[in-house]
Write a structure and sequence with these properties.
This protein has 732 residues and is of the alpha+beta class. It has 24 helices and 19 strands. It folds into 2 domains: 329 residues, Thrombin, subunit H, CATH 2.40.10; 286 residues, no CATH class. The strands form 2 sheets. Strands 2, 3, 4, 5, 6, 7, 8, 9, 10, 11 and 12 form an 11-stranded antiparallel sheet that branches. Strands 1-14-13-17-18-19-16-15 form an 8-stranded antiparallel sheet. A hairpin with a 5-residue loop joins strand 3 and strand 4. The radius of gyration is 26 Å and the shape is globular.
Length: 732
């Protein structure tokens, strides 16, 4: 790994899979590159010495034009501008929820794809927004100065949270029209303010049919070889004067300060490549106690719960495409996480990561004990972290049930949001929960409106009942007392009580349409109480349980942040150097090579798949139901200029050893000159454990090759205007 000051180091002997070892710098030569480098540190990298033709200044130049101005955060993914008219390329699965939101039985854009023949035909992508990083500055001292000796843990967490809100409000006041966010780089230790341009009118341009964009479905998800055309084209719009604005027919295409140029010739095995993107969360600096909790409690619960929901929703939509459309996006998200967690669980057991972390922590503890000064300051850090996780284990299932009652029961989520909003909106802005602050409330309302479009009572009621059943299985000292009025005191007779309650609740509530919910969101607490809706009455009954949970988590965060800050300090003393903070949805750089790998003895995966594999996998049935037109093109070997002689076909997907995680979906894969050659969308199954540990040997990410994107756009989509906008002449 290259550290914050970019010295190479080995952090606690990160584990191996099947005897595969982590590589590190040897005599200045990089073998494998672990690391998602914050933009604040990339200027210390000598990229040209590493084999690139561009410099760090070409990537980020605060005084001029650089590549980061072409990189966007789109929803929870990454994308990139690829034309001077605001055209964005990202993943098919990143646009999926928006496509589903505008699909109907009559216009099934999920199944058939979407194509706008001209600018005026481009339609709003509901729920999608775009952020472009403008700049950053360190605010650690400004955040931490509110902490005073003797503060209680919950008080510490609240003080930091409030101070961050103040700093964000100040930054946005000084930069009107832009969005500010404070990112916690190391928990309790360092904080950075990021400033973003924020675009709200994002439209669909070209989305291939699901049989291309999701070819292989969940069968192939997190697997190699892949043959998925996981791409979509969007466009950002602004007001005629160039300022960000909500959707309006008068809006015009956004003109980015920079956009990526294509390399239609692509890359080959061994070539240098890099990614700029917004990776989600990694946990490589966490303790064995965190990993043990994930392995034994949280992830198994989530896997089983998501599997149950997927089966339910599949059954609900079997005979009705309209119902199926309501569930598609949710099923896709649940399935993706479930398979990811299964990969993580397998990896954790296979490499025995918890035990290895324990050994490393023993060495760290011995180092601490070797000095009276260290022992005085850090001697109890690991012990206290262990105690916190032990305590958390006692309440974990209760907390998970409360979480998923609110998250997965749409009616309850709606009612609790209304109840929350009615109280929070009466407070001064900086004292509100984040979702109800003036800067965030429009987005909260939009998300609620979009979720109600997918409301289907039988599914919602079944999910509610199953969570009530889980609540009855909790130990007596962990029961959710606010649910006792539904479940009664008899563990064996709860079902009749629950059925009766749910029947009345869903029959009488009006909180299932945006018309009623939108009006209710504008009411204060007193006005809301007069509505007399049973779902709101339920939210009022349950609210104390959620308030207690929130307060407990703030207390826990305050305690954990202090401990993790001290843990990072002593680790740095032990290692004699600093290191990169875990990913946290801020802009990062990662680099490597186009490279295959060996997942097991006598097996080697080459780094490119081709159209031949699409033909071999095609069965005519989902998820391998390739469009007949595409099959005919393959059989006729109508490859145009995209045929690669060494492959004898058009490359479809590629494999590389860069360090990615969730949030990197849609990230541009760029060659050594900074030209676009692919779009990142996944990791290999062995690399699902990347969030906890990385290895040059097995950590491989997967992207769709731009040559396949262009081939599909030309031959299947026949979207010449996009090709021309990309600066590419269609093949004859």
């Amino acid at each position: 790994m290259i550290s914050f000051n970019f010295k190479r180091f080995w952090l606690f002997s990160i584990v191996v899979v099947l005897g595969l070892i982590l590589f590190f710098a040897v005599e200045g030569t990089l073998v494998g590159e672990e690391g998602m480098y914050p933009i604040s540190e990339i200027n210390r990298l000598d990229l040209q010495a590493l084999g690139f033709e561009i410099s760090a200044k070409d990537i980020y130049n605060p005084q001029g034009i650089s590549l980061i101005q072409a990189i966007v955060q789109v929803g929870g993914c990454t994308g990139s501008f690829v034309s001077p008219q605001g055209l964005i390329v990202t993943n098919h699965h990143c646009a999926y929820r928006a496509v589903q939101a505008v699909s109907t039985r009559e216009h099934d854009y999920i199944r058939n794809g979407f194509l706008a023949p001209s600018l005026k035909d481009e339609i709003l992508a509901p729920g999608l927004t775009v952020r472009i990083t403008v700049g950053y500055w360190d605010v650690t001292n400004e955040v931490l100065k509110v902490l005073k000796p003797g503060m209680e843990a919950a008080e510490r967490a609240k003080a930091v949270e409030h101070r961050i809100k103040e700093l964000v409000a100040q930054a946005e006041a000084e930069h009107p029209g832009q969005r500010a966010e404070v990112a916690e780089m190391f928990p309790g230790k360092s904080y950075v303010m990021f400033l973003y341009d924020y675009l709200k009118d994002i439209r669909l341009v070209y989305v291939p049919p699901r049989s291309i964009g999701e070819f292989g479905g969940e069968v192939d998800n997190w697997m190699w070889p892949r043959h998925t055309g996981d791409f979509s084209f969007l466009r950002a719009y602004v007001a005629p004067g160039g300022k960000p604005a909500e959707y309006s027919p008068e809006n015009v295409p956004y003109q980015p300060k920079n956009y990526l140029r294509l390399n239609p010739r692509g890359v080959k095995e061994g070539d240098r490549v890099f990614i700029l993107g917004y990776p989600g969360r990694t946990y490589r600096h966490r303790t064995s106690y965190f990993l043990e909790f994930e392995e034994e409690i949280r992830m198994p619960f989530v896997v089983n719960w998501y599997d149950w929901q997927i089966k339910l929703m599949d059954k609900m939509g079997e005979k009705d495409r309209g119902v199926a459309l309501k569930h598609l996006s949710r099923i896709k998200g649940l399935s993706n996480t479930m398979k990811n967690y299964r990969g993580k669980l397998l990896g954790l057991k296979r490499i025995n990561l918890v035990a290895k972390k324990r050994e490393e922590e023993e060495k760290l503890q011995n180092f601490i004990n070797s000095s009276p000064e260290l022992r005085s300051k850090y001697g109890d850090v690991l012990v206290q972290i262990n105690q916190l996780f032990h305590k958390n284990r006692q309440t974990a299932y209760r907390e998970l049930i409360l979480d998923y009652l609110r998250r997965d029961v749409l009616l309850l989520n709606t009612a609790l949001t209304l109840w929350d909003a009615s109280g929070e909106r009466e407070k001064p802005d900086l004292e509100r929960k984040s979702a109800y602050m003036d800067r965030n409330f429009p987005l909260t309302k939009r998300r609620l409106e979009l979720s109600l479009r997918n409301y289907y009572e039988p599914t919602d009621k079944a999910i509610f009942k199953e969570l009530l059943r889980k609540a009855t299985q909790l130990p007596p000292d962990q029961r959710i007392k606010e649910l006792d009025f539904i479940l009664g005191g008899d563990k064996e007779k709860w079902e009749a009580e629950a059925d009766n309650f749910l029947q009345i609740l869903y029959a009488r509530t009006k909180l299932t349409t945006w018309t009623d919910v939108g009006l209710a969101l504008e009411k204060n607490r007193e006005e809301l109480e007069k509505i007399n809706d049973p779902a709101l009455e339920l939210a009022q009954r349950l609210y104390p349980a959620y308030e207690r949970l929130e307060n407990e988590r703030k207390k826990r965060k305050g305690q954990m942040d202090d401990l993790l800050a001290r843990l990072i300090e002593v680790k740095q003393k032990f290692l004699g150097q600093e290191f990169i903070p875990d990913a946290n949805r801020t802009l990062r750089l990662t680099f490597g090579r186009i490279k295959g790998y060996s997942p097991a003895d006598a097996i080697y995966y080459r780094p490119f798949t081709t159209l031949r594999g699409v033909l071999e996998k095609s069965t005519g049935k989902p998820p391998f139901d390739t469009p007949s037109q595409l099959l005919e093109l393959i059989k006729a070997q109508d490859y145009g200029s995209f045929r690669v002689d060494s492959l004898g076909s058009v490359p479809v997907c590629m494999l590389y050893d860069m360090d990615t995680t969730g949030g990197n979906s849609g990230s541009p894969i760029m060659d050594a000159s900074g030209r676009l050659v692919g779009i990142n969308f996944d990791r290999a199954f062995e690399a699902t454990i990347n969030d906890f540990a990385w290895s040059e040997s097995y950590s491989r990410s997967i992207g769709v090759d731009m040559r396949y994107v262009l081939w599909v756009t030309e031959k299947i989509g026949r979207v010449e205007r996009i090709l021309e906008e990309l600066g590419f002449s269609p093949t004859k």
